[in-house]
Amino acid sequence: MADGADQADQADRGQGRASRLKWFVRTRRGGVLVGAAAVLVAAGLGTWATGSWPFSREDRYCWGSWETNSGPGFLSDTAFEGDDEGARTSEETAPTPRRPTGRCEVALSSSSTGRDGDETSRSTGITLTYGPAPKDAAERMEWISAYLGGRAVPLPDGLPGATDGGRGLLVLPERCDTRDGRPTAVTLDSDARTTWSEGGSLRSNAGLGGVRAVAGLLVAAANRGMEAAGCAPAKPLRVSSPVLMLPEDEESGLFSVACRIKGLEFDKVTSKSLESQVGAVTRDLQSCAVRRERGGGRYFDALMVAQPRLAALFDGTTGSGAPASGWRGSGVFADAYKVVRADCAGRPVTLLMVDELAGETTPYFTAFTNAVTGRLGCAPVAPVASGGSER
Length: 391
What we know:
This protein has seven helices and 18 strands.
C-alpha cells in the first residue's frame, strides 16, 4: 500500500511540473528538442498531465488538443519554410475539476535576412482559453460582441459558437457552468505580425486555416478541456458540416444605409469615414458592424442572439424591467452598451448594441431591433415611431 501511495504522489508531482513546462517544440533546422522529453521521462510520466493520450512521435499542444501537421499552417512543419531560423513554443495551464479554467499559448517566431542585409522578423501568437464568461456586465457585453459580431459566422452542426477565421468562441454544455450560473466557453484568439529591420510592420496571416479549421480547433480543445475539468458529455463534440459564409463583403465609403437596414442611415460626410459589414443573418444569430476607416475603431456593433446556449451568455445582465418607455421585455441601457431580451415568435431573443457614440441614446439600436424582429416575424421589441423612420 505504501509503495502504491508513493507512486501516486510521484505521479501527481510529475503532472504538476508537466503542466507548467514551456519548451521549444520545433525549429527549421531540427526536430523535437529532447531535453524536455528527458525531463518527462525522468518524472515517470506515461501520459500527459491533463489527458490520457500516450506519447507519440508527433508534438501536441494545449492539453493534447492539437497535433503537429494536423492541418492548420501554424502547426505545420513547413511553417518556417523560406526563413533562416524559426521556432514554435508552447506554454499552458490546464483546467482541473477544482479549478475549471485553463489557458494555452502557442507562439511562432522566425527571421530571415535578405541579400541587402535587411532582416525580416515574423511573430505569431495563438491564445486558447477555457473558462466562464466575464462576471462584470460591461466587460461581458464587450466580450460577447467581439466573438459573435463583425465577420463572425455560426459554427456548424448546431454548435453554440462563432468564428471569423482569426478568433472564435464555443459555449460548453450546461453541465460545465459555474456555480453562479455563468456558462463556460472555449475561446481562441490570434495575432501575427511581420516586422522589417529598416522600420515598419504589418499584420499578417496567423495560419489558422480559415473558419472551418478554427471550428475544428475549438471543438478539439473543448473536448480535451471538458475531460480535464470533469464535465465532458457522454459523446464528444464534433464538426462534420460546412461553415456558412457571410452574405457579402465589407462596404466602405459613401454608403447611405448600413447592413441594408432602414434606420441605420448616415449622411454623405459621415459615411465617407465609415465601413459597414453585414455579419451573420440566421434565425439564431444576426450582426451588423460599423467601423471607422483605417483602424479608427468601432462606431457600433449590433447583435441578435437566439441560440439557447449563446443566449445564456447574457443571463443576469438584462435586468428585470423594460429598459425605457415603449420597449418590450427586459433590458439595460448603459453608457457603453444597450441590451434587451424579449419573446419573439415563441422563443426568447437577446439584442445588443455596443458603441462608442457620445450622446447616442437609442435610434440605431431601435432600427436594428425592429429590423430583426420584423425579419423573424414577431411583434416589435423597440417602440415604433409614428411616421416611419426612427431618425
